[in-house]
Amino acid sequence: MTTFPTARDIRTTPEGLLWEPSERHVRGRKGDLTVVDSRHPVLVWEPGTPVPLYAFPREEVRVDLLHPAKNPPKGKHTGSQIFYDLEAGGELITNAAWTFPADELAGHIAFEWFRRAGRGLDHWYEEEEEIFIHPRDPHKRVDAIVSGRHVVVEIDGTVVADTHRPVLLFETGLPTRYYIPREDVRLDLFERTDHSTGCPYKGTATYWSWEGEAKAPPNLVWSYPDPLPAVGAVKGLLAFYNEAVDLVVDGERLERPVTPFTTMLSARRPA
Length: 271
What we know:
Distance between the termini: 63 Å
Largest sheet: 8 strands, antiparallel
Oligomer: single chain
Structural class: mainly beta
Number of domains: 2
Number of helices: 2
Radius of gyration: 21 Å
Number of strands: 23
């Protein structure tokens, strides 16, 4: 009888790693060169890191492109034993791959992702769909739902958005994000920036900064002009960081949540 991975298949190593097998066909490339082509990847969660990474059986990795790292980092990745430099297309990428000392993960190699770490493999695919930043967590859900709630957004008492037709985005582990039609946002109070971010669940976001007198962190507003199909309902709509604005939903003023973005936004805030 065939068995399939479930939440109960998550395993723990003595080093504190969580891992489970995945049935997805995963490929990693550097430019046009395929470095990883795996039908037996495992997802690994490092302690204190909310998002997973992939590790792959050695036989599904171009190990001929890997060389023991000349200057391996210290304290990088949980209990890492061996780091590798990657030589691909005439380019040397230092510390691009590594192994974990856990017996359960012996014979597996993990890689840095360029759009997450600034180096490593720059194109990743699950089946035939390109993914970005990090693997999608199979235990995380993202839902974009059209709503009729009345949402008002304020910055230091100034109403900057007012809508009865938001799209609510529910994402495991994060506060509800309220995506608002452009016609219902005072975009004249904001300036488009060249900042952008990538999300494996939603796509690539563009940003705007507040131009008013109140002190507010830059890149406070974002939009997905071409979101991934699963959240297509947010296409072109605008969202604000709940952590840095005041939200009134159906007449109830919401408390500002404390999230991993709170510290980042505080650091950005003008003095």
